[in-house]
């Protein structure tokens, strides 16, 4: 997938070894900037899919808003934030 080394280290540290089906199909199109609609069962790695796609493109030196993630509840927003920070601290 040609991901950055820092991101790969975070992914492996999180415990991922092999991408799930949804990750295999959606990460590259997301990174390339395509509009992606992905639907999968709970626990299949949807959060990781969009988080990895976003983190691959974020420039840490640029101190401006580069991505916006919307969640329907505060609880889900906090879960997403925790997950994203485990892959690569932003």
Automatic annotation (TrEMBL):
Catalytic activity: ATP + H2O = ADP + phosphate + H(+)
DEAD-box RNA helicase Q domain sequence ranges: 1-24
EC number in record: 3.6.4.13
GO molecular function, one term: RNA binding
The entry's keywords: ATP-binding, Helicase, Hydrolase, Nucleotide-binding, RNA-binding
The keyword RNA-binding appears for this protein: yes
Enzyme class: hydrolase
Keyword Nucleotide-binding among record annotations: yes
Residue stretches making up the Helicase ATP-binding domain: 27-90
A Pfam family assignment: DEAD
Motif (Q motif): 1-24
Domain of life: Eukaryota
Classification via InterPro entries: DEAD/DEAH_box_helicase_dom, Helicase_ATP-bd, P-loop_NTPase, RNA_helicase_DEAD_Q_motif
PANTHER family in the record: RNA HELICASE (PTHR24031)
Domain notes from UniProt: The Q motif is unique to and characteristic of the DEAD box family of RNA helicases and controls ATP binding and hydrolysis.
Similarity field: Belongs to the DEAD box helicase family.
Function in brief: RNA helicase.
Record's protein name: ATP-dependent RNA helicase
Organism, as annotated: Cyanoderma ruficeps
